[in-house]
Amino acid sequence: MRAFSILMFVLSLVSPETAASANAQAAAKPLDVYFVDVEGGQATLIVSPSGESLLIDTGWPGFEGRDAGRIQAAMKQAGVARIDYLLVTHFHTDHVGGVAALAAKVPVGTFIDHGVTVENTADATYTAYLEARKRGKYLQVKPGDTIPVAGLKVTVVSSAGETIRSPLAGTASPNPLCADYKPQPDDASENARSVGVVIAYGAFRMVDLGDLTWNKEHDLACPSNLIGPVDLYLTTHHGNQQSGPAVLVHALKPRVAVMNNGTKKGGSPSAWRIVRDSPGLEDLWQLHASAEGGREANSADQFIANLDEATAHPIKVSAKQDGSFTVTNGRTGMTKTYQAQGGARR
Predict the structure, then answer these.
(1) pLDDT over threshold 80, residue 24
(2) Is residue 19 situated within a structural domain?
(3) Banded pLDDT at 17 (limits 50, 70, 90)
(4) Residue 266 · residue 292 · CB < 8 Å
(5) Could you tell me if residue 14 is inside a domain?
(6) pLDDT, tens only, 164-192
(7) pLDDT higher than threshold 60 for residue 320
């Protein structure tokens, strides 16, 4: 009771004007997203306006802790000293490989995944992840769940081979692209079990589906687009031709796409063209120039963070609540602003 009285006294000293100013300052802070270069794997650091952090995947193991070090560099730039939530989309080496090295260097609050791997449970990288996971809290997620990052709405749309069955916005219109959809062979691997999320900050929305594959992505788009339009699309599966069907990508109508490819991993010309041709797309950014893409299937150099394998520059996105956002090329420092579009796309 005494502690409560002291708290009330302290709060009484804060004027309404001061409280309003503090709230305004908090609202003015952006959502920051760092697409870390892990040479064709994934490591995406998300820092909410509240200061809480969500890391999606950790890149590769080995290379003397290279990818964990690159994530730490992004954390330093973002001003965070811990990972509040670490989401492993699936248990392939280029996504879960850096967990053990990172968790040995920085505190991790909660580990998130889809459950037990469907591949090799004795794999050294997987067992190292399970050991690291014991040091924090653990959350196994299913479609429709939310990840409680303060200041954001993070909704799970796929997990363990299942997808959401109801639209995120409450209603969804039939997707006319479904009539031309051509399925690929079913995928029984970890890719198809990827945890996919939609992250919303006010009017701004981005989607990350890990390495979800073609037929599972179809289930998010047909007969209706259950996700709705997004501002930012992280290309599924590094721009691999096993993922990213037009039936989903074109229904999402992203304003900007970021491809987390490597020089020789991902960046398939066919996948690149599907993204480039998406209705309303303003720009396609790439972590690396794709060797396979050549001159015809790569963005202009100003939209590519790394032109070779000798550098490791990130791409940073900063978003405001009104839906406007900026994208910055870590190699050149070039920043491009994308203005808010209000409710026209919702």
Answers:
(1) no
(2) no
(3) low
(4) no
(5) no
(6) 999 998 888 899 999 999 999 999 999 99
(7) yes
**Distance from C-alpha of 302 to C-alpha of 107, rounded to nearest angstrom:** 35
pTM assigned to the model: 0.92
Residues contacting residue 123 through CB under 8 Å, at least 6 positions apart: 91, 117
Tokens, residue 81? 């000293």
The DSSP bridge pattern shows strands 315-319 and 325-329 to be antiparallel
Tokens of 73: 């560099």
pLDDT of res. 71:
98
Is 67 within the bounds of a domain? yes
Specify the number of domains making up the chain: 1
Residue 25 lies in a domain: no
CA 123, 97, 266, 189 dihedral sign is positive
Q: What is the pLDDT of residue 171?
A: 83
Residue 114 sits in a domain whose CATH number is: 3.60.15.10
Give the whole-angstrom CA distance, residue 283 versus residue 7: 50
Range of the domain at 106: 30-345
